[in-house]
């Protein structure tokens, strides 16, 4: 059997194991298939500094070029793989921080229902509330955690200035070996099922316990977290007043692992072309040099959330203070209100724009996705 055919067969075996309610076996098969195809490097040898850092699973890049394909291309005189490894090398996960760089409380908690239990971190500003606070839900990407994402986005510092609560749900490794939210699994794409039910329930809990403003609840995420944020906005338009997606994917772009891999490359299932039943304001950030999630996903996502309604678009170009150029396209409704913003960051890869280097998968060259998302969110209110 040829290498690629063997890889596909191994992945299909994993899917069948998952359908047979044997997730442990499915995970092992997936890891073996990725490792044999050259997509899952082994853990590096420990160094004194690495040995002191928190343990992490090996980084898995699903868009890598298998060793057998690299050898085949070289034998035929073709070019080896492109420079995706070099572009992502600086974005490898770092040891996660212990406390946020903001004066408020960063408390821990958990929420559970029939779909399972997830832990979370919640930032509560130090400044006294003058009324019900807005709530921003932030979903981390693969190989990240709530604390890591809080550090990298620096959202807590901005939330302190604006008086917002920030909720960071934490994915469990038992639910996904790479700590990804399962956006690509049909089981986790429906209202009141799987992970959407957990995230919505957790959001409602925080609104109730901390007196948040139910009309100003927002959700955002990076990569897999961004894709899940889009799922949540589509499934719960009455709960989330606006959605922010950084380097994510459209709703319905995949139904399983294999279609998820294709969607990351810009090859979507038909479901990604369906518009939402109810328009939800959306802000999208995506680097035009993203080698992990193709930038076309941002364009499809914007069209999906805008639907068939008539909008007027305004395109602006600019440069962040640190030199990274961008193009922002704003969609306005008939009343002149911004219902969507699409930020394309030129020269940027798969990383949170304007992020803090203390967290993983960040690009300090800006513009600040956190600041722009929060600005966009606070201009929106549900009803």
TrEMBL record:
Keywords, alphabetical: Hydrolase, Signal
GO cellular component, one term: extracellular region
InterPro entries referenced in this protein's UniProt entry, alphabetically: AB_hydrolase_fold, Esterase_phb, Plant_Biomass_Hydrol_Est
Top-level taxon of the source organism: Bacteria
GO terms assigned for molecular function: hydrolase activity
PANTHER family: BLL1128 PROTEIN (PTHR43037:SF1), UNNAMED PRODUCT-RELATED (PTHR43037)
Protein name: PHB depolymerase family esterase
Species in which this protein is naturally found: Massilia cellulosiltytica
